[in-house]
Amino acid sequence: MRLLLEIKATILGTVSGLAAVGLAFAAGEIIKPKATPMPGGTETSVIPPAGTKEHQGYSLFMMNCAHCHGSDARGDEGPDLHGVTKSDARISSIIKNGIQGEMPKFGAKLTDSEVQALVAFVRSLKINKT
């Protein structure tokens, strides 16, 4: 009888563990940024190809900027970053020095290389005019 209870407990533990893993994968799909509808009915993704400077910038953006600019960079508390026309130097300066009363400074938190990666990511955000 004890052996039967141990087998049942093992099976129940295994099934519970597999269910937890399944839920974790499902939750990951729910919160993952999706393709963003664009004007004209087309879609695009904000996630650059892995291994690129833009992808490094995307990762930094998700950790430091998405809570204000939105996970798709279309704006929320902060402005939409698609089609930014400022120079790379100006974007870099804004990231490092912030905007008083509007955006915090990230110069002490991010390296120059990380700021350049964020600039590259912002540059990769195009306005789709179809």
Explain what you see.
This protein is mainly α. It folds into 2 domains: 1-32; 36-124, Cytochrome Bc1 Complex, Chain D, domain 2, CATH 1.10.760.10. The protein contains 5 helices and 2 strands. The protein has helices at residues 2-31, 53-64, 66-69, 88-97, 112-124, and strands at 36-37, 43-44. Strands 1-2 form a two-stranded antiparallel ribbon. Helix 2 (53-64) packs across helix 5 and helix 4 (88-97) crosses helix 5 (112-124).
Features:
3% strand, two-stranded antiparallel sheet, mainly alpha, 130 residues, Cytochrome Bc1 Complex, Chain D, domain 2, 5 helices, elongated, 2 domains, single chain, 2 strands
Indicate the CATH topology of the largest domain. Cytochrome Bc1 Complex, Chain D, domain 2
Structural class, by secondary structure, is: mainly alpha
Q: Measure the end-to-end span.
A: 70 Å
| Main sheet characteristics | 2 strands, antiparallel
CATH class type of the largest domain: Mainly Alpha
Principal-axes geometry comes out as: elongated
Strand order of the largest sheet: 1-2
Q: Gyration radius, to the nearest Å?
A: 21 Å
Name of the CATH homologous superfamily of the largest domain: Cytochrome c-like domain
Count of extended strands:
2
Mean pLDDT: 84
Q: Uncertain regions: pLDDT < 50 for 5+ in a row?
A: 34-43
Number of domains: 2
Total DSSP helices: 5
Percent of residues in helices:
40-55%
CATH architecture of the largest domain: Orthogonal Bundle
What order do the SSEs take from the amino end to the carboxyl end, as H and E? HEEHHHH
The proportion of strand residues reads: under 5%
